[in-house]
Design brief:
Length: 216
């Protein structure tokens, strides 16, 4: 009979989530994860067998949590409103997981196999949702009929780039702490993300004075 989980798998995944931004794939060891979760090594291997399976499960859990929220946002009846809500979901996810995403980006650039495998399997999913929403909004006349990759690049850049800047200000000591905190909050609050989404959509609008969303 299988032994009861007692949420040990969840404890291990949470420990991995806390460690990964600093360790990446190479520095994330089974022992470090087990120690952080206060779990013995035997239970780690019972739940995940090895480090490779654990890293896959960890990254997939984080992504699937985001994608579930994205699907709910994308279900709004009007395409442009669904796009607005979806971009807010992605913006808040990027803000809340900024350190982890920077680590993934660095490891992607370094050619880390596990990260590349994960991105190949998952990036088309959320990009596909955005592409479908942009296409629908163009068809109903809400957005300009520009190339889909161009539209996604403009929207994603408007939402995400200030989040990277805001996080860097807080971590690199480029400004006094109080000033950096004020700037970071101005760029990374829910309200700030929603304002940038509104502005980006207005810039792509085929209709002058496209009505702003109520998401704040």
């Amino acid at each position: 009979m299988p032994r009861p989980s007692r949420n040990i798998d969840a404890q291990l995944l949470q420990a991995g989530r806390e460690l990964f931004p600093d360790t990446g794939v190479q520095g994330l060891t089974v022992r470090r994860v087990a120690d952080r979760a206060h779990v013995n090594l035997g239970m780690f291997h019972y739940h995940f067998r090895n480090k490779q399976a654990f890293v896959r499960a960890l990254l997939q859990q984080i992504y699937d949590e985001m994608f579930a929220r994205l699907e709910l946002a994308a279900a709004a009846p009007a395409p442009v409103e669904a796009l607005r809500r979806s971009l807010n979901v992605l913006g808040r996810f990027a803000r809340d997981n900024a350190s982890l995403l920077r680590r993934l980006m660095a490891e992607m650039m370094a050619g880390e196999p596990f990260v590349l495998e994960f991105l190949r399997a998952n990036m088309p999913r959320h990009v596909g949702v955005l592409a479908g929403l942009v296409r629908s909004a163009q068809r109903d006349g809400s957005l300009q009929p520009i190339a889909i990759p161009q539209a996604i690049a403009l929207l994603a850049g408007s939402v995400a780039a200030p989040l990277v800047i805001g996080a860097a200000l807080g971590e690199r000591g480029l400004f006094p702490r109080e000033v950096a905190a004020t700037i970071a909050h101005t760029l990374t609050s829910d309200r700030a993300i929603a304002q940038r989404v509104d502005c980006a959509l207005a810039g792509l609008s085929a209709k002058p004075g496209l009505k702003r969303g109520a998401s704040r």
